[in-house]
Structure formats: C-alpha cells, structure tokens
Amino acid sequence: MKISFPDGETRNYNKGVSGYEIAESISKSLAKKAIAVTIDGFQKDLSDKLNSDCSIKIITINSDDGLEIMRHTLTAQVLARSIKSLYPKAKLAIGPIIENGFYYDVLFEKPISIDDFPKIEEEMRKIISKGESIQKSLYSKSESIALFEDKKEKYKVDIIKNSNQDDNFQIYKQGNSGFIDLCHGPHLPNLKFIGAFKLTKLAGAYWKGDSNNEMLQRIYGTAWNNNNELETYLKMLEEAEKRDHRKLGKEMDLFHFQDDAPGSVFWHPKGWLIFKKLVDYMRIKQEEAGYTEISTPTVMDRSLWEKSGHWDKFQDNMYLAKTNDERIFAMKPMNCPGGIQIYNNSLRSYKDLPLRVAEFGKVFRFEPSGALHGLMRVREFTQDDAHIYCLKDQMENECEKVIKLTLEIYKDFGFDNVKIKFSNRPIKRIGDDKTWDFLEKSLLKSLQNLNLEYDINEGEGAFYGPKIEFVLVDAIGRDWQCGTIQVDLNLPPRLSANYVDKDGAKRHPVMIHRAFFGSLERFIGILIENYAGKLPYWLTPSQVVIININDDCLSYARKVQEKLKKSNIRSFMDDRNEKINYKIREHNHKKIPFMVVVGNNEINSGTVSLRTQETNSQEILELDKFVLKIKKLCSL
Question: Is 72 a catalytic site residue?
Fold first, then answer.
C-alpha cells in the first residue's frame, strides 16, 4: 500500500504496519520523539495499524499537536488514575483538553477543595515516575458497558449506552495498574513523555451541562513541555486574573449578570456607552467601505430555519416558542437567513453586485450554564455581521478589501499583532472539488496579494466553504479569535438567492460572511482585559473627573466642566466632602484617565492642575489649553 507524507514523498509499506514502524523506517531519532500520527486528517494512536493507502503525518512531543495529546493523556489517564487511587469511591465523568490545559469532571463522595491539590499532584507524579506504557483495546458496546458497570462508573456507562456506536469502543489501560478509562484518544505511548503540570482551579459543573443532573466538581489543570514554559504560563495566569473583565467591569460600574437572565448582560450606563461607541465607530467604517445597514426580525418561524438548515444542525441551541395558533418560532441564532430575505425581496441583476449589507444583529444561543463566562461566553449577544453578495470574479477583490479593513480596524484598537489562519476543505463538505479549488484559490490569493503571512488549518473549513480567521494577540500574549471571512456555498441555493446574469439566466451569487468583532460583548471583554481596564481615551466612559478642593471652588469647577462639555469631552464633578488623596485613589481604581484638581490657586490663575492615570504626575495648564489637550488625546 502507498503512504504519502507531508513533503509530497510516497513510500510503499505492507498492510498492517503501525504508525510507530513507519516513524522508525524514516529514522530512529524520529521514532524516539513520535507519540501519535495523523491519518488522512484524523489523529490516531502510534500503535494503530494501517491497511490501505493514506496520507500520514508523524506527531512528535515537541509539536503543538503533541502538547495537546500530552495534556489529554495527563487528564484522562494520570489525573483520573490518581483520583481513583486517592478517592476509590469517586465517579469519573469526562476529561477533555481545553485551551492551554485540561479538566476532569468528577463526583466525589465528599467534595474536595483546592487544599487537596498538592496531594493529588503528588500522586500524579508518582504515577508518571513509573513510566508505564499505555495500551488501547477495542470492545463491543455490551462488553464496554459490562466493564464499567463492574467498576461502578455510572457516567461511563451512560456515555456508552447513549452512543450510536455498536463496537470499537476504545478503552485504555496503563501497564498492569488495573486502571482503565474510556476515551477517543489518541494518547501518549508511554507516561515518560509527560512534562511539567499544575492543577489550577476547581469549579462546579452539571453532568451534561443540565441543571437537572448531579453537580460534579471540575478540576482544571495546565501542562507544558518543561518547567520554564509552565512558570511563564502561570505568571501570565496571575496577570490575567488581575485583568479579569468580570472583576474590572464591577469596579468600573460597566455591567452585571444575575440568575434571572443567565448569560445575558445588564449594561450599566457607562458600559452601554462603550457598546454604543463601538457601534458608532463601525457604522462610520462600514459606510465608508460601501456597506448599507439593515435590521432583521429576532423571532422567525420554524419553516425558515428548516430551509436554511439550522433546524437540523442547531435546534438544540435555539430558543423556541409555540404560539396559540400552534406555530413554532425561534429566536435567531444567526443573522444570515434573515438577511437573505431582504436580498430576495428585490429582483437582483449582475449589475447590482457586489452588494455589501451589514447588520448589528442580536442573536440567541443556548449554552450550558457551566460554559458561561462573563462577556466572553454568553447566551445573548450582538454580532457585527455583514454579508457580501458578489459574482465569482469579484470574490477575490471583495475578500481583499475585507482583509484590509479588518486589519485597519484592529490597529485602531491597538492590536498590531494579528495572526491569520486559512481553513481549507473539510472531509465532510458540500460542493464539488472544482468549486472548492476555485474558492480556496481566490481566498488564498486575496491574502497573498497583500503579502500577508498565514497558517493553514488543514481540513478546518466549514462544510459549505473555506474561511479566514483573525486571531488577536493581547498585551499578555493570549490569543483571541475574533474576525472571520467565510465563503458560503450552502445558503444562496437553499434560500433561493439569485441574480439575473448577462444572458438572462438566474444564478446564485457567491455569499461572503464577514465579522470584525464577532460578538460586541466579547470584544468589549477582550478590550477590558487587554488594557487592564485602562481603555483607549476615546472609548473611556468618563474621560475627566473634576475635583474641587473646597466649596469655594465649586463655581470654577462647574465652569471647567461646561468647557469640557462644549468640546464633547465626557466629564463629571466629584464635590463630595472627602480628602483629595482619597478621591484620587478611588478614581484611579475606577480607571478614570484624567483627574483635574481645582483650588484657589487655579481660580486666581485661570488654570487647572491635571493628573493622568499613567504618570500620576501634576501639570498646571491654562484652562483653554487644557481643554484642547484633552480633546486631542480623546480623539480616535
């Protein structure tokens, strides 16, 4: 059989060869570092046998994929085994990897606390030090159920019983330890590959994310190739905690959440001002770029969602309601089907294209309560959506314009370090290869024309078309996936979006989905954390606070405020009967960028004493010069 490699080379092997044997045939040193393989885009264990022609990629421990597999082994094998060793009556649920780490959901006989982490970590180190090999066996459904019923692991039994599989359940064990776990894998071939790790936090999580089920304890952890990488990450976590937008949002009086509306934001006046400023900014940018703005209904009939395909693929995440006339409506989880109704409401000619249509659409998606996280993960959010309807020969140029505008917008918000990822065709997709060849070539060409670097996410495109993702790198090195450009082969024919071509024939336009922020709520959260609450001056809700030294200065303080107001600078007075230093500390804490102190000296000289949050130094300025300076600083 023929095996092809990433560099284009092809070699012949006998059927039944393992991933490890292929790595060894290339070089002994590669085999020593190999931990798993990717076969035709799917990760497999190193011990898996190959029996037909395929493409292969050897995964080594020092790669990104290798690090994720190591984290998976650490949670599903090492953490799980240590818990069963220390707490034999504990019931194991699930243990996936997440960004930069992993977690395991467990039902303990008596709840544990973070004070138990050192004991668990010590047990994990003991297990790792044994350096045992990890073996996989395949079982039928009935055999798998029997195995875990015997071990009284009810959650594993539940997973197996509710699976659509009948056989080939993967069960892993470590040497002769007696520990087994159900897992889709792959895993390290040996525990000796595990690097440095740390358990980080403890949280509650309902089984299957359903509040009607038992509350489990979720143990979070992180793992890296060595101690230096681990320490760097832990320092970043410490800094991230200080920047947590939930904490800063409360201190700055921007928003809050409450159980009456889980996953929905209660915007306070200052927070809503930021939201509106983002929308105002985007409206100007989009108008300059030739977009028109629309608004579509929030609640639409089930029939539209059936036509669009969302009913089949997304129904579990949709909010539904039945009316007295027995019609079923859904709150929109996406804006695109509604937008197409406006496109379809007029007869479109090829001369009308490209047509650029934007919408600040509020969407609703049910997320498990355990997944909710401040502004970053909500159930109700506003997308800065846009859809471009164009001809095939216009697509490359349109995508190029979107890319340039995207990077320009991020720069305005202080994000100069932006990673670009191109995701090509997945294995399961619609459309023929010729169409995919064209779409991928056009999207890539739009990046190449701008001389932009990008990474390829092999097989990560949507089933209906390839996409470009923009990942922002924040002030402490974290990645935030924000903007997307997606080409859609699915919706125009599904929802009968047509245009009349030169020859009079009706054809489907190319549909480009585009978002810069993705979610305005999430982007505000990212901004708060990136700037540690000290937002760009033009976005800051309260730009200047005026502090009077005594009541005799109130009239002059009001004059200062009136001057600022006339220059559209957002200010307020703090005339409380408190000490000046107390007021300054408090407003520093609330991230007010400019503090103006006025006393008798300032009244007599027609000046102000200006303090900035960054320097905390004083500057004496004439009143008019002060207003001009602040106006300039607070402009975008």
Answer: no
Choose the catalytic residue: 384, 385, 474, 488. Answer: 385
pLDDT at 203 over 80: yes
Q: Is 482 a catalytic residue?
A: no
Query: Phi and psi for 445 in degrees, rounded to 5?
Result: -60, -35
d(CA 98, CA 372): 15
Q: Is residue 43 pLDDT above 80, yes or no?
A: yes
- Residue 326 scores a pLDDT above 90: no
* Catalytic hit among 513, 514, 522, 587: 513
pLDDT in tens, 426-469: 887 877 888 889 899 999 999 999 999 999 988 888 878 899 99
Catalytic option among 170, 174, 286, 383: 383
Domain ranges of the chain: 2-60, 65-242, 265-296+335-530, 300-331, 544-633
Q: What does the pLDDT read at residue 8?
A: 84
Flag whether pLDDT at 614 surpasses 80: no
A 10 A CB-CB count for 421 gives 16
Whole-angstrom distance, CA of residue 418 vs CA of residue 455: 12
**What is the model's pLDDT at position 149?**
94
Q: How far is CA 271 from CA 58, 101, 253, 266, 520, in A?
A: 49, 32, 7, 9, 12
User: Does 625 score more than 80 pLDDT?
Assistant: yes
What is the dotted CATH code of the domain comprising 265-296+335-530?
3.30.930.10
Is 365 catalytic? The answer is yes
Decide: 599 and 550 in contact? Cβ < 8 Å: yes
Sequence-distant (6+) residues with CB within 8 A of 323 are: 329
Alpha-carbon 158 to chain mean position:
29
Q: Which fold has domain 65-242?
A: Threonyl-tRNA Synthetase; Chain A, domain 2 (3.30.980)
Neighbours of 35 (CB within 10 A): 26
Burial letters 382-397, b for 16+ CB under 10 A, else e: bbbbbbbbbeeebbbe
Average the pLDDT over 294-307 and give the result. 94
DSSP SS3 for 124: helix
Q: Look at residue 560 in the predicted model and tell me its pLDDT.
A: 96
The pair of structure tokens assigned to 629 is: 């300076």
- Identify the active-site residue in 198, 379, 387, 522: 387
Split at pLDDT 50, 70, 90, the class of 177 is confident
CA distance 279 to 603: 39
Task: Report the interhelical angle of 395-412 vs 269-288 (nearest 10°).
Answer: 140
Tell me whether residue 390 is one of the annotated catalytic residues: no
**Kindly report the CA angle at 551 between 548 and 557, in degrees rounded to 5?**
40
**Catalytic pick from 467, 478, 587, 611?**
467
Give the active site residue among 208, 217, 218, 336.
336
Instruction: Clarify whether 181 is annotated catalytic.
Output: no
Query: Average model confidence (pLDDT) for the chain?
Result: 94
Annotated catalytic residue within 365, 514, 522, 587: 365
Class of domain 2-60: alpha beta
Active site residue 336: yes
What topology does CATH give the domain 544-633?
Rossmann fold (3.40.50)
Mean pLDDT of 487-514: 94
pLDDT at 325 > cutoff 90: no
* Closest of 357, 482, 360 to residue 410, by C-alpha: 482
Check if 268 is active-site: no
Nearest to 57 by CA among 433, 422, 458: 458
For 264-287, how does the pLDDT look when each residue is reduced to its tens digit (9 = 90+)? Answer: 999 999 999 999 999 999 999 999
